[in-house]
Each structure stands twice: as C-alpha cells, then as structure tokens.
Write a structure and sequence with these properties.
Layout: H1 17-21, H2 25-31, H3 41-51, H4 64-70, H5 75-89, H6 93-127, E1 131-136, E2 139-144, E3 153-157, E4 165-177, H7 179-182, E5 188-189, E6 209-210, E7 215-227, H8 233-240, H9 250-280, H10 285-298, H11 304-321, E8 324-326, H12 330-334, E9 340-343, E10 355-360, H13 370-378, E11 383-385, E12 388-390, H14 393-404, H15 409-415, E13 418-422, E14 430-437, E15 440-447, H16 449-455, H17 463-474, E16 478-486, E17 492-500, H18 507-516, E18 520-524, H19 529-539, E19 546-549, H20 550-553, H21 558-564, E20 569-572, H22 576-588, E21 593-597, H23 603-608, E22 611-615, H24 621-626, E23 629-631, H25 636-676, H26 685-695, H27 697-703, H28 727-755, H29 769-790, H30 796-800, H31 806-824, H32 828-831, H33 844-864
Parallel strand pairs: 9-18, 9-21, 18-20, 19-20, 21-22, 22-23
Antiparallel strand pairs: 1-2, 1-3, 3-7, 4-5, 4-6, 4-7, 8-23, 10-17, 11-12, 13-14, 14-15, 15-16, 16-17
Helix pairs in contact: 5-6, 5-10, 6-11, 6-26, 9-10, 9-25, 10-25, 10-26, 11-25, 13-14, 13-15, 25-28, 25-29, 27-31, 28-29, 28-33, 29-31, 29-33
C-alpha cells in the first residue's frame, strides 16, 4: 500500500476521540486520511505546519524584550538605579550617567549570557526527548515525538511512552499505565475493537484509544495518531497547570538571599558614610552624597545573578560531554551533594554484554536438547538485524546460543506462530509463550529459578540442577531456567542456562572514588543474592557487606532499614515497590539520594529520588522521562563523574562570589580613608565602575569554568542547604583577600606620592590626585590578578598554570589590556578620571599580584599545619 497523502492544504480535521473509538480500524485510517504505509514526507510536513509540533503545551517563547528588561529590575540592578539617582541629586550627572551605562552594559551582557545558557539547556532537552517509531514513506524509523502529526502510523511496545493520542489498529497483549493522566496505577488492557464512551465516562476509558503520556507496560501495538500537542489528552491536562510557576531551587534562593543582604549592607554603608562625613569632615552635603553613592556602587556585585545561570548551564554542558545529559537544571546543583547511590547491577556495574556459558539438564547432561533450543528460540523477543539480533540482552544471548547449537530461531517462530504470551516483568520474574506444535497448544517458559520452581510445583531441584545452580551463583553468573508443557498444565523443567555478564572494568575505580568522596553505594538488583554478592566483591564492595533478599527486606522496620543502609549493602530479588521504599526511607533520614533505573516500574523510584538517573542505552522511555539525568553509556562511572561536576559547579560559584566581594572590600577602603584623613579621594567612583564592570568581569566568569579540583572527590558531601558564603569563606574573602587587595591599592596611592617627594604627616598635593588615583586603580587590579590565581585549587604551580583552563588566560589578558587602555588611551582615561603614568609604575601589576599569591601560599601552609 502506498503512503497516504492529500492535496496541499487539505490535512484532515482531527476527529473526536469518541467518534474514532466507535470506528473499525480501517475506518479510523480513512477518517485520518492515512494508511498502514504511513504518510509521505511532504504530507507530514504540511500537517506539521497545520497542527504545530506535538508538545502538550507549545512552549511559550520568552519575549526577548521582557527577558532583556528582567536584567534591569532585579535587586542589585535596582540598587544601582538608586545610586544613579543619588548621583544626579548630588549634581554629578557624569557619575549618574556612568552608573546608568554600567546598568545598561551589565544588563545586556547578562541577557546574552542567559540566552546562551538557555540554548545549552534546550539542546540537552532535545537530546533526551521522547522518541517514537513512526512509519513514513512506507518504512519505519525513529523520530522525535514532537514531529508526529495526525495520521502518522506508530509502533509502541513495552517500555515506551505513547507519544500522542492514538487509535489502535493492531494490539498484542497491550496494557497501559495511565497514572500520569488518571492517577490510577493499575495497568489497564487496550484493544483495537470498536467501542463507545458511556455517559459520564472520560475518553481515557475508551479501550481502543492509547492516550498521550501513557506508559506501555506489556505487549505491543500498531496505532494511528489522531490528536497531537495541545489537542491531545496530555495537552488538555497540561494546559490546566500551564500557569503554575516552578519554585526556586535552593541555589537560586541562596544567591537571591545573598543579593538582598548585599543590597541592605550597601545602603547602610552608604548612609553611614553620609553621616560620618557630616560628623567628622567639613565636606559639603552634595559632595558627601557623591561619596555615599560611591560606597553603594563599590559594594554591589553586579554580575552575581547572571553568573548563576551561566555556571549551571556550563556545568550541564560539561556533564553532557561526560555522558550525563541533564533534563532538569536543578539536578546540576543537587548531584554534587549526593550521600548515597542506589544503583542497579546489570548494564550499570556490568557491561550488559551477556553470553551463554553453559547448560545443564535435570539428569546432569550439559548438551542442550531440541526442546531446550525450541524454548530459547520461541520464548524470545529478539529481532533479527542482518546477521545478528537486537533487543533485550538476555534474549539476544539466547538467540545467538540457539544458532550456535544449530537452531534457527526465526524459522522456528515462523513454523510455530505465537498464540499468546505473558511478558516478563519484575513481579513475576518469568516470561511464557503459547505456540502451536503438531496441532496442539504448548507453553514455553523461561525465568528466575524460584519463579519457575513455583510454576513447576517443585519442592526442591534435582541434584544435578541444584549443583549447577550453586556453582553458577557462587561464580557470579546469572541463571535462567527453561520449562515447557501442554498449555494450561504444569510445565516440566528442561534445564538451566548459565549467563555471564562481565563487570565494567572502570567500576572498581568508580566505587573507590565514591568511598573517598564519602558517598555510599547500595546495589539493588533482581538477581540471585549469591550472583550479586560475587559481582560486588569483584568491584570493591566491603567483603562483609550484607546481602538482603526482598522477602527479608519486608520484615524490617523503617528504622532498621535506615540503620542497615549506613553500611555497604546488597539488595537482591527486590521488586520496584521495595526499591521505592528504600529510596523513601533514605530521604526521610536526611540522605541525598541518587537512584538508577531503566524499566517502567523504576519510574516511581526515579521520581522519588533527589536525582533520578535513567539509562540511555537500555532504558525505557518511561524511565528516561521520569529521570533528572540520562546516561548516554549506562555506566556507573558516569554517575561518579556527574557528582564530581556537581561539586565543581558549587565550588566555582563560591570562587566567583569570593573574587567579586574581594574587589568590593578594596573599592570601599579608599572612601572610608578619605572620610577620616585629610587626603584626596584615592579612587573615583567611575574607577569603581571600571573595576566592577570591566576588569572584574571576564576573570570572574573564567573562575566559573574551572574544572573539578583533585580535592573535590576527597571530601564528604555537603548538604544543598549549606550557605554559599560559609564562615571560613567569609573570613578569607573579607578579612584576608579583601584587606590585601585594599592595602595594595592604597600602597600604590601613597607610594606614588612618596616618589613625588611626599613624606608621612605632610599634606598631599591635590594636583597629583588623578595620577595617584590611577595608581590606586592599578594596585587594585594587581590584587585582582593575584586573587584570580589564589581562588583556584591545587598546588602553587597548578594555580599559576594557564593551560588547565584557557578561559583564565583570556580573562587575565582582557583584564590587563583593559586596565592599560583605561590609563593610556586619550579621552578614555579622562572619562575614568585617570592620567597616563610613567610605564615604570606598571611594575605595580606583577609586584602586587606576586605578593598576593605569596601571602595566600603562606596562609595555605598555615591552614594545612
């Protein structure tokens, strides 16, 4: 059948879901002007233009004008507007204009940086968006769900998220989890048979409709898309909460609080300056008002707020480069505070490259029987892909094993069509199919030993199987038991298959890194406890770690479970509800929890964790959409890398805060000195602006791009609620770095006068004030250069190196070039109240920076002792 298409501009109106449900499958296709061969590409493009992207709520593009304006009305910007008003009131229009220019340039810069940060996050979100298997131009391919249109033919299977409202055409044992829509967690069956909606029922109750957002629990289906985007069921639900704004993250609240405190201190300091000037000097009120304005400006860290979003976006991009795509930006700041990782085993701690090691029969033979090969081939969902197979790793391993033993799984399936099946799930722990053999219905089953033992109604294993099972689990191998029998009867055990999944080579180092970082690891698996313990021992778990089975877990109180989780522990044979309980108990006891998952039933635990991590390779769409982070390589080591990046981001924000406030102390000191001593003003207000907006800017942002310190994973995790400006950082910033930078500026000021013939207790020549204030400016810049290196981590040589972070080199070059330009470029130096000085005075820059770094080196030695 050829792909369906309509003449241009005649895309069909989306029919009512109730009307669609009442139709037969062929009529549904006709109503949507489609066919089993799907739409052709031109028609799909026309319908996309007609209906728009398939997004529950079309994202409201932030109006650029509003986003731009927002950077001029936050707390610190408003404070600068106030300072500009004071300057105009004091009769200093040049100063007022300069402050307004600072607000304008800083706002524009922040807008550009935030826009770029938004682009990074949008790109990451697209990389983990829901994918759909859609038939276009007569063939199936993978496409983003947002590109679907009414009339598209889609294939869905267990683990998928229904990408749009779909009417079923063909279904095989299909059940859906509608909890995202209805709140009901019990899976419901779906069938393509026509039906109608009764009075008072929702279209969600229609058995032939698979609504957008539902999770496919079992089975598979072919369906035609009948509603997308805001017209879909999920779109109507989403529209109800469209206006609800998300709450601020802990880090955003901390930065906002810091901004408000800084604003309050700046206003109080400005008012105090005004009062002190009136009390201790004969300075006119208007001039005092100008100085108060300078104090306020000196205490405002203009770039603090935009740097937050920039730092988080940089962190998210770096996590993505290391294989961890971030779906929620708040996870970037939380992941660095993780105290325990609840990880699954298969594919995360192991390579998920499963192979069959051996086979054993109840009578002790190790050669597979024809019945065993039939079971391995028929009770199997692996798909042929050229000369190999694809699908679930266990199914693929069994298919390859059957081929190696001379069987042909695809041919066997063709000659013995499947009549019914019971898909594997975490509760049953077995899969069963019903096929026709010689005119009779026969069941084939594979599953965990305990599950098959119960089906076969055995009290114990035959001795050869018991011995093989003990040997396999002691060696850490996975075990499957095969069984068969007449349909509806009690199956007989065919034999035991040993499977080997090697541990990831990087797993031991990652586990060791977690230990050094104070992060505990708990293994949560559905495997046999002996298998799980064997792997745990190989990758570095404590040899005395307890292995707790699911049935034993249910006997523990929450208090006992929390106590148990304070040590290395392995949970085996657990189900999703038990996994959710473990996560809940941990969070209640104050832990910050990462949990990994890949299946449909993992979604509740992923949502409940502080940071949910889904597997990108083997993970279902349901798990990916429930998670905060998606791993591109399903690798435990990537989780550890994400934790390292999270810690680095928080450390970088602290570096930025320390660097900016250090300059604020140095800018404030000259104004205070002017009040109490009969000297010219050592630093003009416009020079303060030149520091805050000019020389400070790029070096501060460069500190926000620093890589993780070697010490980042050597310390215990800190809680997200720990303040950014800790007591130790406060003292170091304001009472050490700030004092040094202020002294460097003032030393340069008085040094210039001293070289010109001034001696202590003599008056200062006002005619040299501009040159002297130029030296104050250069002295503070020298302190900034030293502070840039002091705020970095590592050994002295590493802190001074420019190779590890190219942005530090760029920031340093920009700072020095701008400082020299402000001093020596005619016209520009006049605007900023500076005058060219003898080039020999430029030695202040390396001398001051060297002294700053040396003093910080001595401080570090003293702290280490």
């Amino acid at each position: 059948m050829a792909p369906s298409h309509l003449p241009p501009g005649l895309a069909p109106e989306t029919p009512d879901l109730g009307a669609i449900a009442a139709m037969s499958p062929p009529a549904r296709l006709a109503a949507l002007a489609s066919s089993l061969a799907g739409l052709d590409s031109p028609e799909a493009r026309r319908r996309l233009e007609r209906w728009g992207p398939n997004e529950p709520v079309h994202p409201q593009r932030t109006r650029p004008l509003f986003a731009f304006a927002a950077n001029f009305v936050h707390t610190l910007a408003l404070l600068l507007w106030f300072a500009a008003g004071l300057a105009f009131a004091a009769g200093a229009p040049e100063l007022g204009g300069a402050i307004i220019a600072v607000v304008a340039v800083n706002g524009a810069f922040a807008f550009v940086q935030e826009y770029r940060a938004g682009q990074v996050i949008e790109g990451l979100m697209r990389s983990v968006a829901v994918q759909a298997r859609v038939v276009r131009d007569g063939s199936e391919h993978l496409a983003g769900a947002r590109d679907l249109v009414p009339g598209d033919i889609v294939h869905i299977a267990a683990g998928d998220i229904v990408p749009a409202d779909c009417a079923l055409l063909v279904a095989d044992n299909l059940t859906l989890d509608l909890s995202m829509i209805s709140g009901e967690t019990i899976p419901v069956e779906r069938t393509p048979e026509p039906g109608s909606v009764a009075q008072g029922e929702s279209v969600v109750d229609l058995a032939s409709i698979a609504p957008a957002g539902a999770a496919v629990v079992t089975g598979s289906a072919e369906a035609v898309v009948c509603a997308t985007g805001p017209q879909s069921t999920m779109g109507r639900v989403a529209s109800l909460v469209e206006g609800v704004e998300r709450g601020s993250s802990m880090l955003e609240r901390q930065v906002g609080q810091l901004s408000r405190i800084t604003a309050a201190i700046a206003v109080l300091a400005g008012a105090s300056t005004l009062l002190l000037a009136a009390a201790f000097t004969s300075t006119p009120f208007v001039a005092s008002l100008t100085f108060a304005t300078g104090v306020i400006v000196a205490l405002v860290p203009e770039g603090l707020l935009p740097t937050l979003s920039v730092s988080l976006a940089i962190g998210a991009r770096r996590m993505a480069e290391r294989g961890a795509a971030v779906r929620r930006l708040s996870a970037v700041e939380v992941v660095g505070s993780v105290t325990i990782i609840c990880t699954d085993k298969t594919g995360t701690l192991t390579e998920n490259s499963i192979s069959v090691l051996g086979f054993a029969t109840p009578d002790g033979l190790d050669k597979p029987t024809l019945e065993a090969l039939a079971c391995a081939s028929l009770c199997n969902d692996a798909r042929q892909a050229g000369s190999t197979f694809e699908g679930d790793p266990i199914d693929v391993a069994l298919a390859h094993w059957a081929v190696a033993q001379g069987a042909d799984p695809i041919a066997l399936r063709g000659s013995h069509p499947r009549l019914a099946d019971i898909p594997f799930d975490a509760h049953r722990r077995y899969m069963s199919v019903t096929v026709e053999v010689d005119g009779k219905r026969r069941d084939y089953t594979k599953g965990a030993p305990e599950a098959v033992m119960a089906l076969a109604r055995l009290d114990s294993w035959p001795e050869p199987l018991a011995r093989a099972l003990d040997e396999a689990t002691a060696n850490g191998d996975r075990v499957l038991v095969l069984a068969s029998g007449d349909s509806g009867g009690t199956p007989s055990v065919i034999g035991l298959v040993r499977l080997y999944d090697p541990p990831r080579p990087e797993a031991p180092a990652a586990i060791a890194a977690c230990r050094r970082a104070g992060v505990r690891v708990a293994m949560l698996t559905g495997d046999h406890p002996a298998t799980a313990r064997s792997l745990a021992t190989r990758i570095g778990f404590d040899g005395a770690a307890m292995a707790v089975e699911g049935h034993a877990l249910d006997t523990l109180s929450d208090t006992a479970l929390a106590r148990l989780l304070q040590h290395d522990v392995i949970f085996a044979r657990i189900d999703p509800a038990q996994k959710l309980r473990i996560v809940t108990v941990l969070r209640r006891s104050g832990e910050v929890v990462v949990v990994t998952g890949d299946g449909i039933n993992d979604a509740p635990a992923l949502r409940a964790a502080d940071v949910g991590v889904a597997m990108g390779l083997r993970g279902t769409e349901v798990a990916k959409q429930a998670a905060d982070i998606v791993l591109a390589d399903d690798n435990f080591a990537t989780i550890v890398a994400a934790i390292e990046e999270g810690r680095a981001i928080r450390a970088n924000i602290r570096r930025f805060v320390s660097y900016v406030f250090t300059s604020n102390v140095a800018e404030l000191a000259p104004f205070l000195l002017y009040i109490f001593l009969p000297i010219p003003l050592p630093l003009a207000v416009v020079q303060v602006l030149a520091i805050d907006l000019g020389t400070d800017l790029l070096p501060a942002l460069a500190l926000g791009t620093e890589g993780a310190s070697p010490a980042a994973m050597q310390a215990r995790p800190e809680l997200p609620s720990r303040p950014l400006l800790t007591r130790a950082l406060f003292y170091r910033t304001f009472l050490f770095y700030g004092v040094i930078e202020a002294l460097l500026g003032l030393a340069a000021f008085f040094g210039y006068y001293f070289a010109a013939g001034w001696r202590p207790f003599e008056g200062l020549d006002e005619s040299l004030a501009r040159e002297a204030s130029t030296l104050t400016f250069l002295g503070i810049v020298s302190g900034q250069v030293g502070c840039l290196f002091a705020c970095r981590d590592g050994s002295l040589l590493k802190r001074l190196s420019l190779r590890s972070n190219g942005w530090v080199a760029v920031g340093l070059a920009f700072e020095l070039a701008l400082a020299l330009g402000l001093v020596y470029i005619p016209g520009l130096n006049h605007v900023f109240s500076m005058r060219p000085v003898n080039p020999a005075w430029l030695l202040v820059l390396p001398a001051g920076a060297t002294l700053f770094v040396a003093l910080d080196w001595l401080r570090r030695i003293g702290v280490s002792e």
